[in-house]
Amino acid sequence: MKIFLAGNPNVGKSVLFNRLTTIEVRTHTFVSNYPGTTVDYFVASTQIGGKRAEVIDLPGVYSLRSTNEAEEVALEILRTCTKADVVINVIDATRMRNGLFLTLDLIEKGYPLLIAVNMMDAAEKKGIEIDLNALENVLQVPVVGTVAIRDVGVNRLISRIDEKKVGNIEDLANECR
């Protein structure tokens, strides 16, 4: 099984990656023919639910529209995703709107999805309330609140990996009408 961590830059993907992995990390680099286009991503192996899993920390992106090198790299890596794998979409709880654009792209492309709404503590400090159950009902994919830096919610996220779902953009559009 492969676990892909996708999300905007600075949402805590790398912290979550470190929480999920236990074995030496392999760094991979994509380099283009023009300056300033080196993009790193990280891969490590771990055991989840008694099964070997490869965790891939994708570069931070805002969409899967291939408008920059990081998005192209993320798309190229995600092409290896199968129904047996899972994409964990990490969203910053204080910037939900930004993260949900990528979520809709992932749903539209049909990836098996699980959402980690990270930095729930920061959202609470700002007075932001997030109804995770309502979000799960609307998006029709599992949603878990986390504070990765403190290891809060990570075990719950791991326990829900097998619940990943392929969302349906048409059903989502109908739900929002």
Radius of gyration: 16 Å
The CATH superfamily is P-loop containing nucleotide triphosphate hydrolases
Main structural class: alpha/beta
The string of secondary-structure elements, in order, is EHEEEHEHEHHEHEH
Q: How many independent structural domains?
A: 1
Highest CATH level, the class: Alpha Beta
- Please report the distance between the alpha carbons of the first and last residues: 36 Å
The major beta sheet can be summarized as: 8 strands, mixed
- What would CATH call the architecture? 3-Layer(aba) Sandwich
Number of strands: 8
Tally of helical segments = 7
Mean pLDDT: 86
Indicate the proportion of strand residues: 25-35%
Helix content: 25-40%
